[in-house]
Amino acid sequence: MHKTNTVYENAVTTHRSAESLARAHGFESVAELAEQLPEYAKVIDVGAGASPFGVEVAKLRPDITWVNFDYSYGADPEILKEVSIGAPSNVEYVAGDATKLTDVYEPETFDAVFSYWLLPHMSLDEPGPARAAAEAMYKVTKIGGRISIGSRNDRLRRLFGGKDQYNTESGSSEEFADKIVAGTKLSKSASYLQKLINETATPFFGTSRYAKREGKQKQIYDPKAGEYIPLSSKEGVKIRGRLAIELAKRAYINKRRK
User: Are residues 180 and 59 located together in one domain of the fold?
Assistant: First the structure.
């Protein structure tokens, strides 16, 4: 059974498509993102999860080095094994805690830093971990390098003057972190729901890899078989039902504690 100490370490290992993430980071496509990276760039995706985002960019740009950095790669070796299948040689997979990113990499290591939906999870209990991660991302980015962090909302865009991406040419890591954490924090109701899911689903499945999409088909992890099955299948419906019961139990327990 996968055990962790904080609610954000139980966050789902996401499986978003490369194209959807490219658009989330402000590009029309993966191809446009790849084209705009500097020659021989070193890039990191913090909280990369199970997405093929980095793999697809790296295939288009064999000159760059792309690092997928995620806590789950160390927590569950099967996740690392699964996500690295078919990856080109210029993609690296590194297990680690985003709050300790500067323990792994020297300052100004990367030309570009991407991260999506990591910080909202990290600020579920309190903002400290998210702030530490944001500061670390800023510090490992080269002067003038690009940082793109999501999920962005209207509040975050206002804080950065309408910009979706930021560079490290001005301001401090502390100022950057304050703005990023304020702009990515979930609402009270959304935070409660996400925390409930994180606290329940990962222990329920014994891993943080419990949902993904293959083409148009949604799949769910079957802990007994140790593999993904269609969400709409007979066993998939049973698993969803059992998970719903566990979520209801956790919600009741939390309510009783208040």
Answer: yes
